[in-house]
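Protocol step 4 of 6: structure prediction from sequence.
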Amino acid sequence: MTEIVPKAKRKGKRPPPPKPNETISDAVQKFLNANPPLCDLEKLLSTLPKRWSLYPPLVLLPPSAFNSAEWQTYLNSLPESQRNEFFSIWTTTLKASHLAINAPIQDNLIRSPQITPLLGDFGKYISIPPTQQDFNKAFWVTATQNGIKQTWAPLYTMFSRGNITEKARILDFPDIKGEEVADLFVGIGYFAFSYLKAGAKRVWGWDLNPWSVEALRRGAEMNGWRCVVDSIDDEAEIVVFNEDDKMAVGQLNKIGVKVKHVNLGLLPSSECAWKIAAEILDEEGGWIHVHGNCRDSEIEVWKGEILKAFTELFNCKRQGKVERTFRVKEFGPGVGHYVLDLGCSSIRGM
């Protein structure tokens, strides 16, 4: 007589699948065993990248990846085909097609990214003003945060995963619905898209980088928002100008728009646009959101300096009050990326 084994006994609990880190580590060890380095194998394995960012279809490794002399010597000793086989461990495991190493953003006017492509076709870098054909040929990646899609060309523009906390805060911020918003460093729409999702009537943006402007346009389209570039359209939810934000005062005055929220999302300091923010804010008041890097131990001094500066810029016509400060993320040891919400109101009877 055949014994009927209960289902629970017949099928044991399946072990959890290996984590990507484990899969990559095992694959790297097999590769190193098959292609032995001259240095100590364990030394290479101990400095293997343990983290990365996945922006389909790109895997972006941290700046420290493979930067030791041992890794450099080993990778340079491999033929290109074997080097590509090694790098494909990451793309295969993480179901991507491109691999690169990230680096700190360049300190220039358009905040250019710095990445080192390792695997995949990133296209030829274009240093001259791009055409629409250049945009269409470029390599683009995407990310979704808080249900909002963003896209960018990693050779030309940047993305910060750590800003997600500030994006979420904007979604719950009061007094946004139905209002006009200005984002003076709009980029690819880091914060502008959160204002739109929170119900803003329209976002007016400025950015010098044409690749950021194109990324914003594409991202807006992905999310179902109408975006126009360097023109005015009453039906558009976002209007972006590929120009210096010093033009914002003239542009908004020309069409009679006074905004209720001004976002100043430039690091390490947005001070270069404080005067512009004070001029374009509605005379009846509103909010100025000042981003900046500050030592955690000096936050009270930073708040006082910002309040004093805007008090002078308002020239007795408005008054400001620091309603709150929010630490977005760690920027370095003891240094945070902060946002200060300055509530502004009109001074009557002047």
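Step 5 (inspection) to follow. Residues 1-5 have pLDDT under 50 and may be disordered.
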